[in-house]
Amino acid sequence: MRKVYMDNNATTRMREEALEAMLPYYREIYGNASSIHAFGRPARIAVDEARAKVARLLGVAREDIIFTSGGTEADNLAIKGVASALKSKGDHIITCAIEHHAVLNSCKYLEKEGFKVTYVGVDKDGIIKLDELKSAITPKTILISVMWANNEVGTIEPVEEIGMLAKEKGVLFHTDAVQAAGKIPMDLENMPIDLLSISSHKFYGPKGIGALYIRKGTKITPQLHGGHHEMKKRAGTENVASIVGMGCAAELAKKEIPEEVRELTGLREYLYKGIISKIPDVTLNGHPTKRLPNTLNVRFKYLEGESIVLNLDLEGIAVSTGSACTSGSLEPSHVLTAMGVGAAETQGSIRFSLGKDNTKEDADHVIAVLPPIIQRLRDMSPLYEKGK
After folding, report:
1. pTM for the predicted model, two decimal places
2. Are 383 and 287 in contact (CB under 8 A)?
3. Which of 204, 225, 252 is the last residue of a domain?
């Protein structure tokens, strides 16, 4: 059976170069990076080199990169850390209705702690309503957190415009760039972004390691207390091997982004055209052009997405209904709901997220296998009978 993996927004396959770079730090170079003796120094050098590679991916200074356990911790550190550091200045935070739950649940936690949070809506394509965002800013607003690109539909938000608005109002701006980093070009040096979260396993690095960019001078309170690691921003012994793997993946991503953008955009459009040419009642979720090159989210009328996922899995094809972090939930997607998609249609949505390993032959296989699955499921659906 042909195996096709199209769930790269959930996680990517770690590239061989990253794995090979990591192995010596499990074997020969096992010292603690905070130790000053001969066993620790090579580990410290490796961490510093990896930090520089991650910084180059984003176009920032290496001393502004803080390693974390992943995107979720980076989001928590940014949002809770700023809230704690600036609570004497204000108690208001603004975010977006379609954020990842690492952001939404951090904000909900802060609401329980007495902070006020405004959740700004989006249009039908998933683009944040800038007028609504602007009008939500008050003298008590201390942070705006809006993702760079959405994990479910791939819509790319106007982060530069949001950052400029935040800067004009003297408000810090954080963006969750977990899905964007390594997929589209970034140069933060001249962008009005104060904090940015990324995760290694979204761009072919190891799981369990991420980073938070903190612009120099940004006030933030550490959320983990212990030693003086990571410029006193994040306590805990450095995960040297994973940091090295992340650095390797970041370095290669930086070189390959232009070509990968071209290839994945073409493959994504080829897949989409193939699907809509053979299956009726299919609608694109997300912005038609302002979208990640690898992400295709479509909804199939009259159907329930989990059934499609399971049937494709039986054919060796891996896709998802949306965020991996909400897999198994019976609740409709909060992203699609915020975009104005009805509950029934939300349930019929599927996300294809492509990666560097995917080929035209993979797309052809999906285009061949999917139509009979959709027709079989629709034939069993009472909703389809009503819709005929």
Report:
1. 0.95
2. no
3. 252
Residue 174 is which amino acid? Answer: H
Closest CA to 242 of 78, 35, 14: 14
Task: Provide the domain count of the chain.
Answer: 2
Phi and psi, residue 350, nearest 5°: -130, 140
Range of weakest confidence among 16-25, 79-88, 322-331, 332-341: 322-331
Find the farthest-apart pair of alpha carbons in the chain and give their distance in angstroms, rounded: 75
Residue 119 binned pLDDT confidence (cut-offs 50, 70, 90) = very high
Residue range 120-131: mean pLDDT, rounded? 98
C-alpha 90/C-alpha 82 separation (Å) is: 11
| Tokens at 218, concatenated | 């940004």
Asked whether residue 296 falls in the same domain as residue 329, the answer is yes
List 65's β-bridge partners, or say none: 213
Q: Give all strands (DSSP E) within 194-293, no chain letters.
A: 195-199, 210-214, 282-285
Same domain? 329 vs 235: no
Report yes or no: 377 and 345 within 8 Å, Cβ to Cβ: no
Q: How far is CA 93 from the centre of its chain?
A: 21
Q: Which of 154, 104, 131 is nearest to 294 (CA)?
A: 154
Tell me which of 206, 226, 252 is where a domain ends: 252
Q: Provide the edge-to-edge strand list for the sheet that holds 349-353.
A: 282-285, 295-300, 349-353
325 classed as catalytic: yes
Query: Could you tell me the CATH number of the domain that includes residue 49?
Result: 3.40.640.10
**Which of 96, 107, 248, 325 is an active site residue?**
325
Q: How far apart (Å, rounded) are the C-alpha atoms in residues 128 and 147? A: 10
E strand or H helix that includes residue 344: helix 343-346
Give DSSP secondary structure letters for 114-160. Answer: T-EEEEE-B-TTS-B-HHHHHHH--TTEEEEE--SB-TTT-BBP-HH
Residues 135 and 206 in one domain: yes
Q: Which domain holds residue 291?
A: 4-11+257-387
Give the separation between CA 286 and CA 178, rounded to whole angstroms. 18
Q: What are the helix and strand counts (H, E) for the chain?
A: 13, 12
